UniProtKB/TrEMBL annotation:
Transmembrane segments: none annotated. InterPro entries: Peptidase_S8/S53_dom, Peptidase_S8/S53_dom_sf. GO terms for biological process: proteolysis. Pfam families: Peptidase_S8. GO terms for molecular function: serine-type endopeptidase activity. This is Subtilisin.
């Protein structure tokens, strides 16, 4: 079984975006341009390092700046879900979060769940609501400084922590919940490979929980 993963972010390198699309703020859809921010490239690299068998397709919703809308994200998600079953993604990774609950995004997430497309979205371990991670059919991913590359933590019923290039793990440069979400998506991809079939979200949550090394939030001192 091949695992197909859709990455909704800033795109990828020029050699990595064939067949990918860009969803623009004015509602237009065009061919994905090479990543200008580097974020989507790093997210895809983390997923590939986690699961080398993963087949990644980009949906670009960030262009020159790391700013997007619920409409862009929902269009990107709808595009992934609308593909024929033989080419539909198994997982969508969104290393992003929006402050408000918007109907188009909520509906797109519901439609993804109906097709057994699992969604992993970034969510800070602490803080206010964040969408789509706060929807009940979405798996939240964040960084956990306790976790080495191979480890996973369960911070809540639907929130998992993972390696995120944190300073505590000698990381340098980009770090945080967005990279943690990518690593969580990689863990999930390996579970799908092992199981050899599509999973409902509750089963995915259960199997991910069995892989966890830590339970409950980090306890920071000092």
């Amino acid at each position: 079984m091949a695992v197909r993963i859709g990455v909704i972010d800033s795109g990828g390198l020029s050699m990595d975006i064939e067949g990918s699309l860009a969803f623009l703020p004015d509602g237009r859809v065009e061919a994905c341009a090479p990543d200008r921010l580097g974020h989507g490239t790093i997210v895809a690299k983390i997923i590939r390092n986690s699961c080398p068998q993963a087949i990644i397709t980009h949906a670009q919703v960030f262009q020159e700046r790391p700013v997007t809308t619920a409409t862009q994200v929902s269009m990107a998600l709808d595009w992934f879900v609308s593909q024929p079953a033989s080419h539909r993604v198994d997982i969508v990774c969104m290393s992003l979060g929006l402050a408000a609950d918007r109907a188009p995004l909520r509906e797109a997430v519901y439609n993804a769940g109906a097709e057994k497309v699992l969604i992993v979205a970034a969510r800070p371990a602490r803080g206010s609501t964040c969408y789509p991670a706060d929807y009940e059919s979405v798996i939240g991913g964040t960084g956990d400084a306790r976790c080495t590359w191979d480890q996973l933590s369960r911070l809540g019923p639907r929130l998992f922590g993972a390696w995120s290039n944190s300073p505590e793990q000698a990381g340098e440069g980009m770090a945080g919940a967005s990279l943690g979400a990518a690593r969580v998506a990689g863990h999930l991809a390996n579970i799908l490979l092992r199981e050899g079939r599509a999973l409902e979200i509750q089963e995915a949550l259960s199997l991910m929980g069995e892989c966890c090394d830590y339970f409950g939030p980090e306890r920071r001192t000092g």
